[in-house]
Design brief:
Layout: H1 30-36, E1 41-47, E2 60-65, H2 71-79, E3 97-102, E4 106-110, H3 120-127, H4 130-137, E5 141-149, H5 156-168, E6 172-177, H6 184-199, E7 209-210, H7 219-227
Parallel strand pairs: 2-4, 2-5, 5-6, 6-7
Antiparallel strand pairs: 1-3, 3-4
Helix pairs in contact: 1-7, 3-5, 4-5
The chain binds guanosine-5'-diphosphate.
The site of guanosine-5'-diphosphate has 18 residues, from helix 2.
Length: 230
């Protein structure tokens, strides 16, 4: 694993707010997001227990979601790398946290996917140890990105993870995936539904993001939002 800690902790001069054509929410620094995610991103650590966590290197963002939600695809698309995060395979098979270093500026943490049909109490049991301890005790963890498939209703397992994140008092952001697969009207409805859900949870960030790893929709806005946390 790398031994150098980030030295600047900032992104340098800020570019003008808003994306090309003014389509992004005001205040988003699209260029900083783009620059951050052009940095090399490398896997450097896998932790299977809380005493194995790597020493903090700088700000961390963790990605969570049920298996098949599109987590690996999103991490790969954000970083522009084809096979950085591997598809999680069978639900719950890999109970480890995978750490990636993005240019010594930001650490991306891939959390294990939880089961599609898992009952809330099974998810809570699975997340009780390493996941919960990590979430609660990691001072550098800036935000959890909780992915929701835009085509599928929010499941009991998603609600269970949101409850755990509330309890761990970690800020988390709901991010819809696979929006290339739904109509604009369905997306608008899904965004309203997710925003209502976010408002009902103490630790949820109020803005919901919508993305497609296939079409690239929403990626530059999400990169910019993550860059703001560095
Ligand atoms: P993970 O288990 O959450 O890591 O999910 P994967 O990234 O492996 O994706 C699961 C499936 O969804 C794969 O067949 C992907 O090709 C597909 N997928 C992921 N993201 C998108 C997307 O943005 N659009 C579409 N249409 N399919 C996607």
């Amino acid at each position: 694993m790398p031994t150098t800690a980030p030295t600047d902790g900032g992104l340098g001069p800020q570019a003008p707010a808003g994306g090309p054509g003014g389509l992004s929410p005001p205040g988003l620094d699209i260029e900083s997001g783009r620059l951050l995610f052009t940095q090399a991103c490398t896997f450097f650590y896998a932790a299977q227990s809380i005493d194995q966590l790597p020493a903090p290197l700088g700000p961390e963002i963790a990605f969570a979601g049920r298996s098949n939600v599109g987590k690996s695809s999103l991490v790969n698309a954000l970083t522009g790398q084809k096979a950085l995060a591997r598809a999680s395979g069978q639900p719950g098979r890999t109970k480890q946290l995978n750490f990636f270093n993005l240019g010594d500026r930001l650490i991306l943490v891939d959390m294990p996917g939880y089961g599609y049909a898992q009952a809330a109490k099974e998810v809570k049991r699975d997340w009780q140890g390493l996941m919960f301890d990590y979430l609660r005790g990691r001072p550098d963890l800036r935000r959890v990105i909780l992915l929701l498939d835009s085509r599928i209703e929010v499941k009991a397992s998603d609600h269970a993870v949101m409850d755990l994140l509330d309890r761990a008092a970690v800020t988390y952001q709901l991010v819809l995936t696979k929006i290339d697969k739904i109509t604009p009207a369905a997306l608008a409805a899904k965004l309203r539904e997710a925003a209502t859900l976010a408002r009902a949870h103490a630790a949820a960030y109020p803005d919901v993001a919508a993305t497609s790893s296939d079409s690239g929709a929403g990626l530059e806005d999400l990169r910019a939002q993550l860059a703001q946390l560095v």
